[in-house]
Amino acid sequence: MTYLFRILEKIKKRYGVYLGYKSLYKLADFMVGFECAIYELTSVNIDFNSKFQIFIENRTKTTYTGKHWSDIISESKSQEEAFDLFFIYLEEFKKIVNVSNIFNDMYEENMSNVKSWFNDEN
């Protein structure tokens, strides 16, 4: 999940390069694609979306409605505000997730497949 967090930091800083403009829905779609790419390259299921879904439902005190986390965050917010709020929630989520232990297999078995994607720190 560290790789996902790294790319999200890049998107936060330069959203226009990755998404065109601030849009939580475009970001959510990007993340699904990212998870699929990691799975195809490494057979590792990051499963960020389902974990973040549970976090957002608990964080916003939303009972299960079938709404995606992006819909929950976006309610009564503009796409720009929802985009910014996502990153606030992401920081909270990162504090409660033990990132280093979740995907040890990804680091050990598949580092070479993914590492080249993140050499650029810009």
Description:
The radius of gyration is 15 Å and the shape is globular. By secondary structure, it is mainly α.
Tell me the layout of helices and strands.
Blueprint: H1 2-13, H2 15-18, H3 24-42, H4 48-59, H5 69-74, H6 79-96, H7 99-102, H8 104-115
The overall pLDDT average reads 81
Radius of gyration: 15 Å
- Percentage of residues in helical conformation: over 70%
Quick one: biggest sheet? Answer: none
Unreliable stretches (pLDDT < 50, length at least 5) are none
The total strand number stands at: 0
Element pattern in H and E: HHHHHHHH
Short description:
The chain has helices at residues 2-13, 15-18, 24-42, 48-59, 69-74, 79-96, 99-102, 104-115. The protein is mainly alpha-helical and 122 residues long.
Features:
single chain, 122 residues, mainly alpha, 8 helices, 71% helix, globular
